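Question (not urgent): is this output format expected?
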Amino acid sequence: MGYTCPQLMAGGNSHQRGVERAAQKRRAERVSVAVDKTSSAMGQSSAILKPEPNKELDKTPWYERGLFWGLVSISVAVVLAVIAATWRDLRWLLLLAWSLAITSTWLACREISKAHIRWIVFGGVSLFCGLVLLLLAMKAPSGDLNGIQRDLDQINRRLSELGRPKISDAQLEAIKEVEQFVVGKDEVGLRREFAYPLMQSLNIEMVRDCLIYFKRTGSRSCNYSPYFTGEVLMDKELGRGAVGLYGGAIVYSLNPEHIGILMLPKEYVERKKVLKRFETSTQLPTSIIDAVQELDQATEENTNNLLRVLHDAANENADYFLHYDDFASPSYFHQVDSLWLSSFVQLRPKADKIKNAIRQFLGVK
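Got this back:
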């Protein structure tokens, strides 16, 4: 009996443990299934509760995209480089600038929903950019003085090919100075360079004020010192005795009927000195000096013509000056301007001769 009970108890315990293990296994399976179902349900719920990404909100506008502004920046940089590169012919880079510009334009136009409007805008902007860059390429200097030929080594190489002597650094610098003085200015720019508009208005104002003074006081002389800005051009023949010597000085008294004095602005005087320096330069070739002298003679002739026009107009009728700004008097309103400009020697053709002389000397076609 002492051995039977332990065996029964042991057997019973083994059976009970088996039953318990089976029960635990079934519970574990049920828990596992429940967990799977719960996890699945939670996963489904999370998916349901998780908001879908808003593609419209996440879409970056074209004007905020780095690619767009990067291409625009490169395009602008190329254009500025071409404008600044006056010493080299880099106009071919404008093609690259145009391709980058139309690429960035296309990125912007993609946001337009209607296809026909998108293509119209893209084509219009691309055409406009192309025309602007084409005009820039046409106006930018190419294969002449502002091109690669300005490099001394290449100029001398070209001159050697033409069988002509080489030039020195000093000669090239002198030629560049002449070129910068006249090239790139139109007729209006050259007239401003020599201060002709100022000279015209200053002297007309002087004659008008003196005529008013003559008419009010009857005096035969007028103080012109308030109008003195640089130098004075005097003509004894036109002045008819108004110009004379007093001691060791030249004196002049303005006469209402015989204007023989012209005020020269300091800008005009300075530009004339520059021309004289070119004409006496030992570095410039004769062909260029001759062309510079033609421009100098033209400025001299225009200045003398202005003095003669003022003299003749005052001698003919004082109303040319007294009613100079009177719009109600068409016979005199700015007629002095017309009289002078009708005999004005154009400066741009003279400047073109200088440019052609430089190009011919440097062997530039």
